[in-house]
Design brief:
7-stranded antiparallel β-sheet, 22% strand, Rossmann fold, 2 domains, alpha+beta, 472 residues, 6-stranded mixed β-sheet, 11 helices
Length: 472
């Protein structure tokens, strides 16, 4: 079990603290690192302003408390109407609940030199003096004798929040600071104008694959977890060029992937217009126990899978399948892969799904196929972005999310592309269009990189054949 706050945890706590603000979490104290010693807690946490205390117990439950006032060692209570207790997970399952102060802020926290973090009188007293580690956990010597006395626990109790014990893997205290939008964008300053939208749209519309390869359309493979927004990304791009909201690809939320067939979607410029020189190839969504396997992704990358091939989890794709392309050409192959990740849940991607993605990346790297990440649902990451998409590159939370995805995926930050798909909108939005078009233009540039490498290989092969003939 991870014993530090995930971004999802921080986002939830930030909303509870003040839903109109972003907050920066800075780790001040961690008992597995600093020792479970009350004076150490106070030396690191006193007079530091608002803090969050988080406990991770041996039953995979995560709970704690927030206070807007500073810790102290005065042997007295502090008033804080903003203080609250909370639980984030119970037995490893997300169960977020906030328990506000019900006494008008009186007895919100208790500061004493011999006490660890203590809330109420005492709803949650974490520990006293020194607690030594026992095996893999700390058997805290505090108590929750008055749980629900100062804070409104809404029918919850010591057992339903803390599993009836105070044996923890870790306890952390974070300082909380309001985080403003950045003064300068963390990526080039995008021009959010109608003129710029038309410029980028025209570059995409006039795109042509590298000559010399007998290739009419670049192929972009969309891969991602169920519900991340693969089909919605195609619908968004399609909407931009159709001039109205389109739902050509089946998209939405379901327990299992709504996409069951391999589709090589074309985008047309306007109603009954010409097909543009790329295809967005949609696949079934990844799940822990379903989705593309290693053999299927290999066949897709090599161009063996025909359009509209229907995946069957019970019957893996093989060369004997109906329509299997036995001798694929450059036009059939994939030239760039876009992993589609839900930006609001990147911290909780199932381990098995991440293992599948890493295995796929290995096969892509072996073939020299470039990869990007389309980071979707960015309006759920940050309140400012939800209110105004053009703030995306000024948001420190968005920047942190991009940095984390870059590290997890092993890709440069420039390969992580934030987008907002059309979901609830009924009319086109200029800022959504610009962000989506910028992502597609970047993807097409990466596809060209792959084609340049392929052309170099072909030309090198020709030179080698000429040398062989000359020797003979």
């Amino acid at each position: 079990m991870a014993t530090e706050l995930t971004q999802a945890h921080k986002d939830q706590l930030s909303k509870w603290i003040d839903s109109t603000k972003n907050h920066k979490f800075t780790l001040l104290y961690k008992i597995s690192r600093d020792g479970c010693v009350a004076p150490t807690f106070h030396s690191l946490c006193d007079n530091k302003g608002p803090t969050v205390t988080v406990l991770y117990n041996t039953d995979k439950s995560v709970y704690g408390a927030y206070t807007a006032v500073s810790w102290h060692s005065n042997g007295a209570y502090s008033v804080d109407a903003k203080a609250f207790l909370f639980k984030l997970e119970y037995n490893g399952t997300a169960q977020p609940m906030k328990f506000p102060n019900k006494t008008g802020g009186t007895s919100a926290i208790y500061g004493d030199a011999s006490y660890g973090p203590t809330f109420g009188g005492h709803d949650l007293h974490s520990f006293s003096a020194t607690v030594n580690k026992s095996g893999n956990n700390f058997p805290l010597n505090g108590n929750t004798n008055a749980f629900g006395g100062t804070y409104d626990v809404q029918g919850q109790n010591y057992n339903s929040v803390m599993n009836g014990h105070l044996q923890v893997l870790d306890l952390e205290v974070y300082s909380i600071e309001e985080q403003e939008l950045l003064q300068k964008p963390w990526i080039r300053n995008v021009d959010w104008s109608r003129k710029f939208e038309e410029e980028v749209k025209n570059k995409v519309a006039t795109y042509k694959p590298l000559p010399g390869l007998d290739l009419q359309q670049a192929r972009i493979l969309l891969v991602g977890q169920v519900g991340a927004g693969k089909s919605s990304y195609f619908n968004t791009i399609n909407s931009i060029f159709r001039g109205h909201i389109s739902a050509q690809a089946n998209a939405g939320s379901a327990e299992h992937s709504l996409t069951t067939s391999y589709r090589t979607y074309q985008v047309r410029d306007g109603y009954a217009g010409k097909s543009l020189n790329f295809r967005l190839c949609d696949t079934r969504g990844l799940e822990e126990d379903q989705g593309l396997d290693d053999h299927e992704i290999g066949y897709l990358l090599e161009g063996h899978v025909p359009d509209r091939y229907k995946f069957n989890p019970a019957v893996p794709l093989s060369p004997d399948a109906l329509g299997f392309v036995k001798n694929p050409t450059m036009s059939d192959r994939i030239h760039c892969v876009a992993f589609v990740l839900d930006g609001s849940t990147v911290d909780v991607i199932p381990e098995k799904v991440m293992e599948r993605i890493k295995s796929m990346q290995l096969r892509m790297n072996q073939r020299g196929i470039p990869q990007v990440v389309l980071l979707t649902k960015i309006d759920r990451i940050c309140e400012e972005i939800s209110n105004d998409i053009s703030k995306v590159f000024f948001s420190p939370r968005m920047k942190d999310c991009v940095d984390r995805v870059s590290m997890v995926m092993g890709l440069p930050r420039s390969h992580i592309l934030p987008v907002k798909n059309y979901e609830s909108e009924v009319e086109l939005d200029q800022n959504i269009n610009i962000l989506s078009l910028l992502s597609l233009r970047r993807i097409l540039n990466f596809a060209d990189d792959y084609l340049y490498n392929t052309l170099d290989e072909i030309e090198l092969d020709k030179v080698q054949h000429i040398k062989i003939r000359e020797r003979n």
